Amino acid sequence: MLNSRPFIVEFSGTPEAGKTTTIGTVANMLRNKGYKVITLRESAEMLPEEIPKGTFEGNLWMHMITQSELLRASYSKSDIVLADRGIIDSYFYGWKFKKEKKCT
pTM score, two decimals? Predict the structure, then answer.
């Protein structure tokens, strides 16, 4: 049976839009109200240098890392997970790469 916790919120937007700063502010506010909060780093920050950014392969790697982090968080005792970019972002980029015929 699936657990109804944690509640997951994904932040999406262009680079340098303030997502990470906003996540930090929201996380602190929620923690001050007594919630157990996990924040997930943007997977692009963890991309190995061997895999170029802006490629289908890079997006695939980031998608898999995001999936694994969300799965890990779903087994935590947290109330809320705040994700800095995530699945919706990687689906969009996957669609973009397909439209550009960079993948099938």
Answer: 0.85
